[in-house]
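Reviewers asked in the last cycle whether our approach scales beyond single polypeptides. To address this, we selected a multi-component target totalling 627 residues and predicted its structure end to end. The input consisted of the following lines:
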Amino acid sequence: MDAFAASLWLLRFLFLGLLYLFLFAVVRVLVRDLRAAAREPGTELGRLHVLASPAGEPPAGAVFGLDAVTTIGRDVNNAIVVEDQFASAEHAVLTFRGRTWYVEDLASTNGTYVNGSRIDGLAPIGFGDEIQIGQVRVRLERVRR
Amino acid sequence: MTATPARPEVQLPAILAGIRPHARWRELVLLGIATLTLTVGSVSLGATLRARDPRTGGGIPDAAFAPYGAALLAIYLAALLLAHVVLVLSGRRSDQVLLPSVGLLGGISLLLMERLPQDLAGQFGGLAQTQLVWLILAMGVLTIVAVVVRSDAWLRLYKYTWAAAGIALLLLTFVFGRDVGGARLTLDLGPISGQPSELLKVILVVFLAGYLSENRPLLVEQSTALGPIRLPPLPYLAPMAAMWAIALGIVVVQRDLGAALLFFAVFLLLLYITTARWSFVALGVVLFVLGSALMYRLFAHVQQRVDIWIDPFKDASGAGYQVVQALYAFARGGILGTGLGNGLPTVSGRLPIPEIHTDFPLAALGEELGLIGILAILGLYLVVIVRGLRIAASAADDFRALLAAGLSLVVGVQAFIIAAGNLKLIPLTGITLPFISYGGSSLLANALVVGLLLALSDRGVEPPPRPSRAGRLRALLDRGAA
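The resulting structure, written as structure tokens, was:
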């Protein structure tokens, strides 16, 4: 009976130990995953994904990393140069203030559209929103970490 | 769309063409550990139960160390492995931690149900067999959702439809519901009966994620000043008021305190995740306290729950019986527990804790596995939350981020509410412990949640295009003009 009782004890603690072994293995995966994410450069605040661009500059499918202030327009001095006949030289500027992204129309001739409606000056935008400048459509996306 | 590169065409039969397996070694290793754990658990349970069996006369029984209920466990483990294989074949690069964690919780549930008296409940044979059927169906739902759901547009675009469906479900339960244990939770539709509030929580998270992600810029930037306090813009307070009213409605109509608490807590958490503003949460808590005080004044069933919570020993053999017995069970378990199969002596022929298989599984586990075992189980729920928040952090847009965070929190908060209720930290509410409590609605709804989380965690999927209808029209016009 003693050997039997001892093996019962052993089984009980083996079960508890295995539960913690499982947790340990999971936590190892989680930590490794977080470390890998931390190694990626993390200065980007957001990304612009070009959805459609009839003139080909910027090419459709291109992805731009965004700084806190990103200017968009036809002029070559803009951070993102848009080669489009309906875009102004200094068309719009994307800014990150506090917790939110804003798009500001810089009094462009043909206007800036957010999700299909024309904005008046400054407008807050969220990730997943679509911006249209001339015929170029871009989407604001979160940086995946 | 021009942005997405076309997939290379492969000349294969239609069925094989879609299969591009992607190995999931981490998941396989974790499943291996879970399998080993559950097997040891069932051997330990079997040996204890056989030694306690009066027919062996206290001697060492034959085949003492054979696993208990081996067939049921083997079927369950095979189902887990099948789910893994299907996920591998689907080739999606989704999360590899959730399936083993949830699988281990389900396995612990199966061990517990095998160990409880089999005549407690069950549509398909005994308690354990019925739970096994539901567990396998749940794993099926989880796998199918994880493999099939590739776009979230159907959730994102029809959020008000979902909300309407949820409210309809609530009303349906009110009108046609059946009272069980003082709460109107169960809806019978022909042969199928279920608890709509389990499905309702998923619908709620989908709606909230849609609403909050759409209005996030406004919620974050605008505010109404009320003296020194900055409140959210008043028009956007309406949903908070509506949520509050719905939560109170659930308490009044369904007499379901747990679901009301769960819904309101998840709403506040999501509001905080969206805006990162404490003032909103503070306002919500004030509303919650006001509502609770009101409910306590007005309704006897709320009063009773709170009174039991304050002093269960006042009526230890009557109203407080369940809670008192659960406390005794935790005390018997201590730190290391009595061992699987050693707890639960029946008191004069009846179970010590009524409704142990649905409302108090944590008390049963606390008795047999002790504090150590319970901490490990709570750790598994923590893993689900952490993983969900991680998926949220790496989501491509706000809707997905809020959806992932909300889905994982709804499981975590539910586990916390019922665990705290079992431990007399908060008044007891009759919601289920996800993946462990007996019952089909709970298992299927939680499997749906985890399946959606798995689908959302796949990084290879493009977020769907989201121009509004006006935008699409304008784009067409522009193209015509150019």
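Residues 1-10, 461-482 of chain B have pLDDT under 50 and may be disordered. We regard this as preliminary and will revisit it once experimental data from Aim 1 are available.
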